[in-house]
Amino acid sequence: MKRVVVVGAGIIGLVMAKELASHGLETTVYDGKKDVSEGSEKASGILSKKGLELSGIDYKDSIVNTLSGARLHFGRQTLNVIAKNVQAYVLDRGKLAEANYRSAVKAGVEVKLGSRLDLERIRDFDDGNTVIVGADGAVSSVARAFAFPQIKSFVLTYKAEYKNAKINNRNIVDLYFSKKYAQGFFGWVAPYSDSVAELGIGITDKVKKHSMMAFDSFTGTEEVKGTIDGAELIKGHASIIPVSSRAKTAEGNVILLGDAAGQTKATTGGGIIFGIACAKVAARSIYLHIKDGRKLSLYDKDWRRSYGADLKMHAALHDYYSKVSEAHMERFIGIAKALGAESFFSKYGDMDSPTLMLKRLFLRKLVK
Ligand SMILES: Cc1cc2nc3c(=O)[nH]c(=O)nc-3n(C[C@H](O)[C@H](O)[C@H](O)COP(=O)(O)OP(=O)(O)OC[C@H]3O[C@@H](n4cnc5c(N)ncnc54)[C@H](O)[C@@H]3O)c2cc1C
User: Fold this and answer.
1) Residue 185 has pLDDT above 60, yes or no
2) pLDDT for 233-283, tens place per residue?
3) Fewer beta carbons within 10 angstroms: which end of the chain, N or C?
4) Cα–Cα distance for residue pair 355/252, rounded to 1 Å
5) Are 142 and 256 contacting, i.e. CB atoms less than 8 angstroms apart?
6) Cβ neighbours of residue 101 under 8 Å, at least 6 residues apart?
7) What is the pLDDT of residues 283-320, one digit of tens each?
8) 365: confidence class by pLDDT, cuts 50, 70, 90
């Protein structure tokens, strides 16, 4: 029987490996990190409550804060999308990684940490008797080893945590959209507690700028300065988020998953909920391939059928926002507010699924 080799013990690779091992498939995960939580501070952990509940992963011990909504700032306009109850959690990414590592190992996955694989080693696994899964992040070696099409757009990020920050509401995240410092993305202030906040920024890779410079501009703005005035910067990290998916994610005995496939929401850069959903699709596609001889390349169609429409809609919204001027966006938000966007999004908004939100809008119109 074919075995499975997963490159990357990030959250997505681990979730998929656990699914396979619990169905009795021999699954080995390789990762260059010595500790599974290494590098987890480079990313944030804001995930929808609904998405987490559906995901079936271990997350409860990783919760550091709850969020009921967001304030979206576009120049002089602010869109308040605030629900009555908890909509999202802020998770400790290190704890999340550890919990899911333990679950995978318990299910029978062999995880080889401290094992960074080069292109030659990855190609050596292609012996006809092994399924190779590239869950190795935005800059995937597996994708490179097997010449998969490239990811076309990335967002460059920089984020830092501050102690003794001035937070006016610990249950609301602030998002700042501005072409002056956050070209093609946004800056954020996400509270962890009453006094600890994460500030971060993303910029499109199309501008020739380091994300740290954008971060300095962002933290120097009038809107944000007050939050960190007198606060202590704990640590800062640069990273990268893919915001478009690869044109092909399966070929021969190889598939790509999570950030390696570009299965992220282009609007926010969130990749965990969709990555996990695709990990389950991948596990099923691999299982059917190994047990029944179903073609592995069908995985590409399988995940796009379930989640492609939502990811495309996130990409279209991101594209739209990236192209229009700031003045246009301000006017657009003003009109949207006048039409009741705040109460609609506060009641029916869905962080993950814009198609579901459209259905709700459509149904509401029908009922009226
Ligand atoms: C600043 C920032 C904020 C974010 N905020 C959120 C958020 O709030 N919510 C959300 O859902 N998502 C967020 N994301 C995105 C989220 O972090 C990713 O989508 C998610 O971590 C992808 O998981 P993954 O397992 O696919 O990849 P990764 O987490 O990147 O894991 C890949 C693993 O592969 C290993 N690896 C790579 N190459 C090799 C090799 N050659 N050999 C062996 N091992 C290798 C790496 O060491 C790594 O452990 C954010 C990202 C950033 C950068």
Assistant:
1) yes
2) 998 999 999 999 999 999 999 999 999 999 999 999 999 999 999 999 999
3) C
4) 32
5) yes
6) 9, 14, 36, 111
7) 999 999 999 999 999 999 999 999 999 999 999 999 99
8) low
Question: Among all chains, which residue has been given the structure tokens 């092994």?
Answer: 130
Kind and range of the H or E element at 330? helix 326-338
Element (H, E) at 110: strand 110-112
Considering the domain delimited by 3-45+92-150+247-318, tell me its CATH architecture: 3-Layer(bba) Sandwich (3.50)
Q: Determine contact, residues 29/11, Cβ cutoff 8 Å.
A: no
Report residues whose beta carbon is within 6 angstroms of any ligand 1 atom: 7-13, 30-33, 42-47, 116-117, 135-137, 141, 157, 159, 200, 239, 241, 258-260, 264, 269-273, 275
| In the chain, where the domains are located | 3-45+92-150+247-318, 154-242
**Ligand 1 atom index nearest CA of 11:** 25
CB 113 within 8 A of CB 34: yes
**What average pLDDT does range 354-368 have in this prediction?**
66
Question: What are the beta bridge partners of residue 236?
Answer: 160
Mean of the pLDDT values across residues 220-234? 94
Report the CATH fold assignment for 154-242.
Answer: D-Amino Acid Oxidase; Chain A, domain 2 (3.30.9)
Mean of pLDDT over the chain: 94
Nearest C-alpha to atom 1 of ligand 1 is from which residue?
43
CB-based burial, 113-152: b 16+ in 10 Å, e otherwise: bebebeeeebeebbeeebbbbbbbbbebbbbebbebeebe
257 three-state secondary structure: coil
Atom of ligand 1 nearest to the CA of 36: 49
114 C-alpha to ligand 1 centroid (Å): 17
CA pseudo-torsion sign 314, 315, 317, 321: positive
Strands 27-30 and 3-7: parallel
* Contact between residue 155 and residue 9 where contact means Cβ atoms under 8 Å apart: no
Name the E strands within 249-347.
250-251, 254-256
User: Which pLDDT belongs to residue 83?
Assistant: 94
**Residue 276 vs residues 38, 172, 178, 213: alpha-carbon distances, Å:** 20, 25, 31, 32
38 C-alpha vs ligand 1 centroid, how far in Å?
A: 11
